[in-house]
Amino acid sequence: MIGPITSALTSSGLTNLVQSTSSSVATETVLKSIGRPGFILIDNDISPDTKKYAAAKEFLYQATCLVIYMALVVPVFKKGAFKYAKNHLFKNMPDAGFDKFKDLKTYALYRKLSEKTMEDRQHILNVNKLQDRFSPSIRTELLTKDDPEKFSKIKGSIELGSLIGSVLGLAILAPQVSHAFIHPALRFLGLEKPKEKLHNP
After folding, report:
1. Where are the domains of the chain?
2. What is the pTM (predicted TM-score) of this model?
3. CA proximity to 73, closest of 148, 139, 162
4. How do residues 5-38 score in pLDDT, each as one tens digit?
5. What is the pLDDT of residues 134-153, one digit of tens each?
């Protein structure tokens, strides 16, 4: 069972998919929150009141998607994927490297430093006093090797968590949250009339 999971998590196909997905979701949502309402507002074939209502509704929906993505994917799914893989999936596999990193934040810092030159790594570690965040073996590796892809099982686990979080957050949770939020917001802005209360005779 572990074999197929490991292969999937470390495959280049998954890495490329999630990197493009993770890096583009926030940008795409921001552009949609500007572009779609803008397109509606310049449409002269609909009435001004309809344009304002439709544009505001679209903006609020895209903004809700962005907030859910930012609040859900990194804090919940990326961290959750790291913890689950560390404590369960690869618990008895020292070569996976999870024992070398306390948490996702430490691994993310390692990745960030690994992408810099050796000289820059040394400078950043010294200036920002980051040495204590890493074990001696990781500090040595950062200052002597240039292989940010070494811990592929960690990277694959985080990327899979990001992908799952994006799908669940934007396809399932965002419509539910926006449905409860958008109409009260539109009424507050005066773009939608309050619902009339029904009185039983």
Report:
1. 11-92+155-191, 98-150
2. 0.67
3. 162
4. 555 554 544 444 445 455 567 777 777 888 888 8
5. 888 888 888 887 665 678 88
Sequence-distant (≥ 6) Cβ neighbours of residue 36 within 8 angstroms: 55, 58, 59, 62
What pLDDT, in 10s, does the model give residues 36-54? Answer: 888 888 888 888 888 889 9
Owner of token pair 């070494």: 150
